[in-house]
Every structure is written in C-alpha cells, then in structure tokens.
C-alpha cells in the first residue's frame, strides 16, 4: 500500500514565516551559528555566544531550578532569568533549536525553551545523544531531557553519536563531530528554505509529537533520483525494522526547477517506504550541479 502524498505549498500570499534559531549550550551554539536567520544562544555564564546575535546567560543554580521544577511551576513563576528567556524567544512563527543532551544545560534548558514558547510557535528541536561510553549519568540525563522535549516540542529530530563510529571510523573525534554538525544542520536548513505559512499547520498535524530520525542521500547520473532515495534510506540513525514510522517528510533539492525529477523521487520513495502519509517539498540549490539531494525525516511514535 502506497502512502498518501501531501505536497507542502510552495507559494504563499502571506509573508514568509518568521524564524528564530536557538542554540543551547556549546554544541547547540556551534550549530546555530551556521544556520541562516535570526539567532539566540542560551548558555552558562562564561560561555561565548554568537557574535552579533542575542544571548541569554544562566547561572548554574538557575539550570538546577529548571531541572527540578515542573513546567507548570515555571510557567507561573516570576523568576527574572525565566522572564529573560521568554522575552528573548518572543513569538516567532518557527523556532529551530539545537542542543546536545547529556549535560545539564542542554538536557534541561532546551526542553524549558520549548515549554515556554508561545502556543502559536512551531518548535523543531534537533538533539544529539551522548556516546554509550560517556557513562550512565550522562545517558540518564539525556533520556530525561529527551522525554521532556518530546512532550513539549512539536518535532524532535534525534541523532545518536554512536553511529558516527561506523559512519566515519577513521576520522579524529573532532572531525567526526564536524560531520555530525553538517548532518544535523542539513535538514533544518533545507526545511527553512521550503517553509511557507500554509506548510506550518501541515507539519504540525502530520509530524507533531513524534520522534524524528533523519537520512540524507545524493544521486548522480541517469538514475540519480533512485540513487538519492536509496542513499537516504540507508541512514544509520534509522532504528531497526521492528520499529515502523507512520509518517515521513521528504525534501528534494535540485539544481533547477524540475517537476519530472521531483515526481521520480516521489515515485521511488513511495515504492520503498511503508508509511501512512508522505509529505513532500522541493527547493532549488544550484550548488548541486547535476546531483539530486534527498533529505528524509521519518516520524516514529515510540
């Protein structure tokens, strides 16, 4: 059974959605700096922000309060640092958030930001999980933070660090993290360029309250669409076959407007992916040359 195809509206009579990119902690700050648009960094006192952009500095004790307090209690509180966060985030149409989980700042401030975001804001959070060898405390903290994020953020894309060992076994750790940064940035960047006001409710309805896993593929040559789809489906971040997604988002990047190329990607993906609904959008990226890029998000209800 093939999925229902829903193409996200490419044209809009409304203004482009206002986007805010938030980086939490050191890892989040580094990734947010590479995204287009208005940026906000949230980190501990003493950490550097993104030059030319806004920053909220927190004391360690304030992070502890965020960890030990319920979302309801913080919502109604009049804590000065919480009010600074709410004011800094404002009411954008879309909030893209980046964070590492495992430390206190990322694990508990990133969920708090989504909990405090205005109800009209679509929140999309990308997080990386610690390596298994980093210890049980960091893994437990990451698990707790991820549970809060999934309850508060419309969409949460999860990237475990462990697959990096298979993806880039011979790279030094610093360069391997650079590979992870580029992978985590790729899909939000592509989505940001495809967004229209009409697309936002479709994304909320069909991908909301799910844990998302990403795959990216490239294809070249006579069968570039098929190759790009196959490449995207081999992502090391997809879980084992016993877990099945129910919804997916495919973003197709092409050198120029090409309806035939887009249709070929839709046909290939529809024949391979067993989901209820497949959301589709496309964008032009002249830097691709003759290649096709497929960015894929699979939505799971774990």
- How many independent structural domains? 2
Largest pleated sheet: 11 strands, mixed
The secondary-structure class comes to: alpha/beta
Radius of gyration: 19 Å
Strand order across the largest sheet: 1-10-9-11-8-7-6-5-2-3-4
Written as H for each helix and E for each strand, in order along the chain, the element string is EEHEEHHHEHEHEHHHEHEHEE
Instruction: Using the coordinates above, name the CATH class of the largest domain.
Output: Alpha Beta
Helix and strand layout, with pairings?
Layout: E1 4-7, E2 19-24, H1 25-32, E3 38-44, E4 54-58, H2 60-68, H3 71-76, H4 80-89, E5 94-100, H5 104-116, E6 122-129, H6 136-152, E7 155-160, H7 163-167, H8 173-194, H9 199-207, E8 210-219, H10 224-233, E9 247-254, H11 259-272, E10 277-284, E11 292-300
Parallel strand pairs: 1-10, 2-3, 2-5, 3-4, 5-6, 6-7, 7-8, 9-10
Antiparallel strand pairs: 8-11, 9-11
Helix pairs in contact: 2-5, 5-6, 10-11
């Amino acid at each position: 059974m093939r999925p229902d195809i829903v193409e996200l509206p490419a044209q809009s009579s409304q203004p482009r959605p206002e986007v805010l990119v938030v980086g939490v902690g050191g890892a989040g700050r580094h990734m947010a700096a590479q995204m287009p648009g208005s940026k906000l960094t949230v980190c501990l006192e003493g950490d550097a922000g993104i030059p030319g952009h806004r920053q909220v500095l927190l004391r360690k004790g304030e992070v502890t309060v965020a960890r030990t307090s319920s979302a309801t209690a913080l919502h109604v509180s009049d804590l000065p640092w919480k009010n600074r966060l709410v004011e800094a985030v404002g009411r954008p149409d879309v909030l893209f958030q980046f964070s590492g989980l495992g430390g206190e700042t990322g694990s508990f401030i990133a969920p708090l930001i989504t909990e405090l975001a205005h109800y009209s804001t679509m929140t999309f959070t990308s997080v990386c999980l610690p390596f298994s060898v980093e210890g049980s405390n960091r893994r437990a903290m990451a698990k707790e933070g991820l549970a809060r994020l999934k309850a508060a953020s419309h969409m949460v894309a999860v990237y475990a660090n462990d697959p990096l060992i298979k993806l880039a076994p011979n790279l030094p750790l610093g360069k391997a993290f650079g590979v992870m940064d580029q992978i985590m940035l790729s899909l939000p960047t592509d989505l940001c360029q495809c967004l229209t006001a009409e697309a936002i409710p479709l994304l909320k309805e069909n991908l909301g309250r799910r844990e998302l896993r990403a795959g990216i593929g490239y294809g070249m040559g006579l069968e570039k669409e098929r190759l790009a789809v196959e490449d995207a489906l081999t992502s090391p971040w997809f879980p084992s076959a016993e877990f099945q997604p129910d919804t997916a988002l495919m973003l197709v990047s092409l050198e120029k407007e090409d309806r035939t190329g887009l249709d070929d990607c839709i046909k290939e993906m529809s024949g391979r992916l067993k989901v209820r609904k497949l959301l589709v959008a496309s964008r032009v990226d002249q830097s691709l040359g003759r290649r096709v890029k497929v960015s894929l998000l699979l939505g799971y209800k774990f």
